[in-house]
Specification:
Two copies of one chain form a homodimer.
Chain A lengths: L27 H15 L6 H8 L13 H13 L11 H18 L3 H4 L8 H13 L8 H28 L7 H17 L4 H8 L7 H16 L4
Chain A binds a DNA duplex (30 and 30 nucleotides) through loops.
Chain lengths: 238, 238
DNA sequence: CCTTCACTAAGTACAGCGTACGTAGTTGCC
DNA sequence: GGCAACTACGTACGCTGTACTTAGTGAAGG
């Protein structure tokens, strides 16, 4: 009988090292690093209990001594990359600080393209996620008249927008990872189909959008612009 | 030899009914409806080729005559629920129209809680998705000086914010669907842990946020407010 | 009309998944 | 030293997507 936990439990609440028994062979950081490495390499779907265990050099079922469910492995991964956020002394310019946070989050997600899929408030309780949130709130200290509830909204909205933006940036790349053809082929096929549909005349505004001179397509600039718009909405001086 | 397609191909580009051979037993709409029903009932993870085939009353492998890959089944599902968008004659007030679009999308996602997970621009080429996008652009006609590129940005950002908002609303509910305990138990465990962490004093602003009077917690009002903020950023009259 | 052949339908099989369970070995505490 | 708690891990089960094979159907061409 292996009396394993079957009760609601946050993984961060269970001690990493128990008092009795042999010294565990790995730390949570080891496991998280292995899983993150696999996900960076082969996508989130490559992260299986068997693969992670193999990367660590242990039996598959031994992993369950550290991670009660696969969900918790995801939680470990999320916390690990949350720790990559650089946290600085707030500058006093909350807009500049929030833009810096957002740009950094975007870079983080480009480094770990599986991260948007794991973005969820249920992972927001991990140590590094809490540190990150506290840092965001610190950056918003200049907004003295804004309630914390609203600040949380602001941070949440900003994170959400960054997540969606990067998810869109990476969508075809991540999709074709498990498909038998390349991203370029996929895009070409879809654009060709779209062109045929628009040519039917059923979507006049879409057609206009496609004939319009797109101007400079600087993804970084578009990102900044969208973010500035969101901040505009919260700026009391506007 | 069953010459199945192994080339990049949008499912909407292949004809639903071939010239020769017996009449197919189902339409794409039948299949989409079955899959949507299963997802509504048991979550997206309950949608397997076997389940959908069983719901249709056919063999598992027969499904592959209609849907070359499971990805395409998702695409069918996305298109089917995209068809549930109500499209009206634009009122001339673009802000009011966009708010109505956003509220409707939120309702749609509450009706189909798996939809946020499928939200991706790669599905934006389906017939109903194109109709929806054209409708959004029509609602933005009053913004005569705005380029279509920017209007696309606006629609994309709005959809993204709605998606993230609803994903957050539903996160614990969808998470506990596959967990052996209830959403309430899960939330209680996490809040208890969070309380313990905040009590350590390591997160002073988080602590302040939790002691602050939260005021009215009307999720609908918060949603509207966040959306209005995003629209503010695009409003030339502000 | 009858042949032809593209198409539909379905079964079998395989590799991979999460994980329940049982067992053996190791270590710290009384 | 003995006991209890813990680690480690192999086996097994039910599930997944889907490649491949075979059989049957029905519209088009001669």
């Amino acid at each position: 009988m292996a009396g394993r936990a079957a009760v609601p439990e946050v993984i961060w609440a269970r001690p990493e090292r128990a008092g009795r028994g042999p010294r565990p062979a790995f730390t949570r950081a080891d496991i998280a690093a292995a899983a993150v490495g696999i996900a960076d390499e082969g996508g989130l779907d490559a992260v299986s209990m068997r693969h992670v265990a193999a990367a660590l050099g242990c039996g598959t079922m031994s992993l369950y001594n550290y991670v009660p469910r696969k969900e918790d492995l995801y939680e470990l991964m999320f916390d690990a990359v949350s720790g990559e956020h650089e946290l600085w002394e707030p500058s006093g310019d909350w807009r500049a600080d929030m833009m810096r946070v957002a740009r950094q989050t975007r870079e983080l997600m480009h480094r770990h393209p599986w991260l948007p899929r794991l973005m969820s408030p249920v992972y927001g309780f991990s140590p590094n996620a809490l540190r990150y949130l506290e840092h965001c709130l610190a950056c918003l200290d200049p907004l003295q008249d804004m309630k914390y509830g609203m600040k949380m909204q602001l941070v949440g909205l900003l994170n959400g927008v960054v997540t969606m933006y990067v998810a869109n940036e990476l969508s075809t790349a991540e999709r074709t990872r498990n498909l038998p053809w390349s991203e370029e082929q996929e895009n070409a096929a879809r654009i060709a189909y779209l062109g045929r549909q628009v040519a039917t005349g059923a979507y006049p505004r879409m057609a206009a959008a496609f004939t319009e001179d797109p101007g400079p397509i600087d993804l970084d600039a578009v990102f900044d612009l969208a973010l500035e718009r969101v901040l505009d909405g919260f700026d009391p001086s506007r």
